[in-house]
Write a structure and sequence with these properties.
The protein has 216 residues and is an alpha/beta fold. It contains eight helices and nine strands.
């Protein structure tokens, strides 16, 4: 590793540690009622905070989607940021489903969500069902993909992938530790077939794969 790369990596680690320490301190005093006024979202945050063993899956949805008790629809940056923090600290959440990209009202919490989720090591399965799967969502998940050692399943279903989305998806898959065993691309629409080679190259880095599903 070159000196400049090492220096940048060290600076990033120090910055992440400072962020984690700051939020750990805040988490000691903050109440879920201070984060969200919505009782359903308060309940999810409380269960994440308490490491509820029955909360093994979580859906992140959009404002225009019908939600149930396991769906969290962030409507502002504070909700999104603390959601990422509590998922990052969870040791019980096994599966996460991302069904929407954050609305512009959540922009101030994207970095907090990114750094918080980047601490998680319990999630073994991640699924996307987003009409337009773009680069933003993979930026929010880059630390998670780089740091997790337990992710075994990746799925994208009914997504539209443009050139930038495919590039970011390929980077995410390439950055994953060698733990992936099941990858599923089902009913997706790829805009610009040339970029598909990037995904193939990324998957080539995972010789331990047991299943590659390219359904429809």
């Amino acid at each position: 590793m070159c000196f400049d790369c090492w220096k940048d990596s060290l600076a990033n680690k120090i910055e992440e540690e400072e962020f984690n320490n700051e939020h750990d301190t805040l988490a000691c005093s903050i109440k879920v009622e201070d984060i969200s006024s919505d009782e359903a979202k308060q309940n999810i945050l409380r269960r994440l905070k308490d490491n509820d063993p029955e909360l093994d899956k979580l859906f992140i949805c959009g404002e225009d989607q019908i939600c149930d008790e396991l769906d969290f629809c962030p409507t502002n940056g504070r909700e999104l940021g603390w959601l990422g923090y509590y998922i990052g600290k969870s040791t019980t959440v096994d599966r996460i489903y991302i069904n929407s990209t954050p609305s512009p009202s959540c922009n101030t919490g994207i970095e907090d969500f990114r750094r918080g989720l980047g601490r998680n090591n319990s999630i073994r399965s991640i699924s996307f069902c987003i009409h337009r799967l773009d680069g933003q969502i993979f930026h929010m998940l880059d630390l998670f993909f780089k740091n997790t050692v337990n992710l075994t399943e990746f799925q994208a279903e009914e997504c539209e992938l443009g050139p930038e989305g495919i590039r970011q998806l390929s980077l995410a898959l390439g950055n994953c530790k060698k733990s992936l065993k099941n990858v599923r691309f089902v009913c997706n629409q790829i805009i610009g077939g040339g970029q598909s080679m990037d995904i193939i190259a990324a998957l080539h880095m995972h010789p331990q794969l047991k299943e590659l599903n390219l359904g429809r």
